[in-house]
Amino acid sequence: MLSGNFFKRVRDRTLCKECGFCEEVVVCPSPNDCIGCGACYKGCPYEAIRMVEDSSPRRSVSIGSTALKLMFQRRQLSREP
Ligand code: SF4
Ligand code: SF4
């Protein structure tokens, strides 16, 4: 299990105007399981969305090749030189 600096969105209902922009205009790549891309955060015209650190542990899978090593974490991809 690995953990790292991953983020997820939190909507502040006291600031949200229910305009629907973050759901109807922004194309979320993972509506049911936020991957922290930040698209809705940047798109909200009322600054009602915050990105907060998600420190929950994630499983990892490493895949090696002769050229590079890829390490996958749940819902995230990183590359080691
Ligand atoms: S874009 Fe912002 S204000 Fe509009 S529904 Fe989403 S969170 Fe609420
Ligand atoms: S747009 Fe990105 S940050 Fe917003 S909920 Fe979807 S995955 Fe999470």
Quick summary:
The chain has 81 residues and is mainly beta. Helices cover 11% and strands 33% of the residues.
Q: What do you see in this structure?
A:
The chain is mostly beta strands and 81 residues long. The protein has one domain (6-80). It contains two helices and five strands, in the order βααββββ. The chain has helices at 21-24, 39-43, and strands at residues 6-11, 49-54, 60-64, 69-73, 76-80. Strand 4 and strand 5 form a beta hairpin. The model has no long low-confidence stretch (mean pLDDT 84). The chain binds iron/sulfur cluster (SF4) (2 copies). One iron/sulfur cluster binds at residues 11, 16-22, 44, 46, 48-49.
User: What is the tally of helical segments?
Assistant: 2
Whole-number count of domains: 1
Strands, count: 5
Query: Given the helix and strand composition, which structural class is it?
Result: mainly beta
Q: What is the topology, as strand order, of the major beta sheet?
A: 3-4-5
**Mean pLDDT figure:** 84
Per DSSP, what share of the residues sits in E-state strands of 2 or more residues?
Answer: 25-35%
Work out the helicity level.
10-25%
How big is the Rg? 16 Å
Which ligands does the model contain, each kind named once? iron/sulfur cluster
Distance between the termini: 21 Å
Largest sheet composition? 3 strands, antiparallel
Morphology: elongated
Low-confidence stretches: none
SSE string, helices as H and strands as E: EHHEEEE
Looking at this protein, list some descriptive labels:
3-stranded antiparallel sheet; 33% strand; 11% helix; elongated; binds iron/sulfur cluster; two-stranded antiparallel ribbon; 81 residues; mainly beta
